[in-house]
Amino acid sequence: MRLLERMRKEWFMIGIVLAIAGAKLEPSIGVNGGPLKPEITVSYIAVATIFFNSGLSLKTEFADSRLHASPCVFCSDFNQGSWWK
Fold first, then answer.
1. Where do the structural domains in the chain lie, given as residue ranges?
2. What Pfam families does the record tag this protein with (predicted)?
3. What does the angle CA 16 – CA 21 – CA 25 come to, to the nearest 5 degrees?
4. Most buried one in 29, 38, 52, 71, CB count within 10 A?
């Protein structure tokens, strides 16, 4: 039972070790043009997932305090748009 408890506690590290071992055994999966398409998944999907995940972890007080920025951005965009006239 002690091993199972340790594995539950260290699940992230075990996952990283398994991912590295899998990449060492079969590197053709992650090569450019391979089945994972790292040129797309790393560039777009991974970055979007990281930003989405960090947005979910924001406290609601912080997010509510940032809502006032929307009208300011709109006004500055509107003012800059009228410079060309």
1. 1-56
2. SBF_like
3. 150
4. 38
